[in-house]
Fold this sequence. Notes:
Blueprint: E1 4-16, E2 22-34, E3 38-42, H1 49-56, E4 64-69, E5 72-73, E6 81-85, H2 96-106, H3 111-124, H4 140-152, E7 158-162, H5 170-185, E8 193-198, H6 201-207, E9 210-215, E10 220-226, H7 238-251, E11 256-257, E12 263-264, H8 279-291, E13 297-299, H9 300-306, H10 311-323, E14 327-330, E15 333-336, H11 338-345, H12 348-362, H13 364-374, E16 380-382, H14 384-391, H15 396-412, E17 417-419, E18 424-426
Parallel strand pairs: 3-8, 3-9, 6-7, 7-8
Antiparallel strand pairs: 1-2, 1-4, 4-5, 9-10, 11-12, 13-15, 14-15, 16-18, 17-18
Helix pairs in contact: 2-3, 2-4, 3-4, 6-7, 8-10, 9-10, 12-13, 14-15
Amino acid sequence: MSHPIVELKDVGKSFSRADGTPRAVLEHVDFVLREGEIVALLGQSGSGKSTMLRIMAGLIQADAGAVTYRGQPLFGPARGVSMVFQSFALFPWLTVQQNVELGLEAQGVSQQERAQRAEEAIKLIGLSGFEGALPRELSGGMRQRVGIARALVVQPEVLLMDEAFSALDVLTGENLREEILELWGGGKMPTKAILVVSHNIEEAVMMADRIMIFGSNPGRVRFQMQVGLPRPRRADSREVRALIDEVYALMTAGAARSERGVDEPVRLRLTDSLPVVDVNRMEAVLEMLQDGPFHGRADLPKLAEESDLTDEDMLKVASALALLDLAQIHNGDLSITGLGGRYVEADHFQRKLLFGRQLLARVPLVAHIRHSLEQEASGELSEKPFLRLLSDAMDPQGAEEVLRVVVEWGRYGEVLEYDLHTRRIHLPGS
């Protein structure tokens, strides 16, 4: 077995809530990144994946457990680890050459050596001739190449890629991913191991030797699987499609098993997160499932392709439909329920009534807000107490996001209304 480079043992990490109490982001995380492997890390937004990467890079410290680099405890930034970010993170006033040299300058490398190594990295990543360009003069794909060159110029043993391709259009992202794999396979990179955080299941299967699936609240490793396919891999090959199906099934697993042999959605707690998806998209997928070519049951990857959704968006839609019992998820397939079938056949008014009824029955936060409003003589309340409630379980941004979903769904189901100017929630008609 190849040697471990970075190892996490029983790692935990918490951040402080607004009231100073801790909120667990990672818990009992065990992970080993070994020489010669590419690992993909999949999971929902907010599951702690990026926090884990920053711990591995030594940018932040774990609160519990042990983090080692080459067997030694890691207490600060690891010189052998570089990161590539989704947002490119380039300094807009610096040229391509200057941006790439930054890491070397921080290491105290001489100006002459910096220039030479930066030129080599720029050439390696396919940007020769753009050394003097500013970031604003480059396309998104070219800006990300600068970010990769800046990461590679310090000759890292470990390359951490945090959603590195997600800000790019599909074709640009695929081309850049393939070029990275060519450099890796040809031994042209100094890097001995790569960890890729992604929401794209196909990307993970195409790149990785091993795939990890993260759970949420707090983040932890739920599943791991080896990818035994040789590279280069064809996205349309039977083996790749089968693995994509398997990963979809793992990503949607974990629900309680019913006597009918299907995976029932996990019952939400009051402060659980919600899939961020609008009602129109949910209805479009449900209609396609019922009236399209799938006859009520669809393989999730095929349904995503047919509806032109990303893997991440498809998983959110499927989770939302399952949460409301309009569809069921089983082994990576989505099947419409009897209730979902009646929903598709209903007119707009009946859909709204049915949607609202399911919200009150299956989303505790919606029921809690509705009950609170009914106890008020005015029929209205500020959003603040509900944000504070959510902030006990998630960061402020996550709390805002969940409340936005509740408001959108609640307004559609005519369970509640919301005044954008006063930021107050009220009963319909009050």
